[in-house]
Design brief:
It contains four helices and four strands. With about 100 residues, it is an alpha+beta fold. It has a four-stranded antiparallel beta sheet with strand order 2-3-1-4. The radius of gyration is 14 Å and the shape is globular.
Length: about 100
């Protein structure tokens, strides 16, 4: 999960920005799903990313895309990254339409 706050951009501008960059994220190797998060009331923004494996997640975090779109993006502040493993069996039950990697 990646979280951040907006700086110098409105909620509406952010949602427009996400639509423009979403295709680049769709091409990230090993990315199974990305859920974009936005809460204009609290100022919390970010994304939940599901990768095929830990190596794909690490590669993404080291990529130019992540660096330019998130880490060094002047429109975002308080960027935080939290990594966790998927609880496979329970996730398969609650998201049957999503191909959850089983590890």
């Amino acid at each position: 999960m990646v979280t951040f706050r907006l700086q110098g951009i409105t909620h509406e501008e952010f949602t427009g920005f996400t639509t423009g960059v979403a295709p680049a994220f769709a091409d990230v190797p090993g990315l199974v799903a990305k859920v974009w998060l936005a809460d204009a009331h609290t100022g919390a923004y970010g994304g939940v990313h599901l990768f095929e494996d830990a190596d794909a997640a690490v590669a993404y975090l080291r990529s130019d895309l992540f660096d330019q779109a998130v880490t060094t993006n002047p429109l975002f502040t308080e960027v935080a990254v939290r990594r966790a493993a998927v609880v496979d069996a329970a996730t398969a039950i609650t998201t049957p339409g999503l191909a959850v990697p089983v590890g």
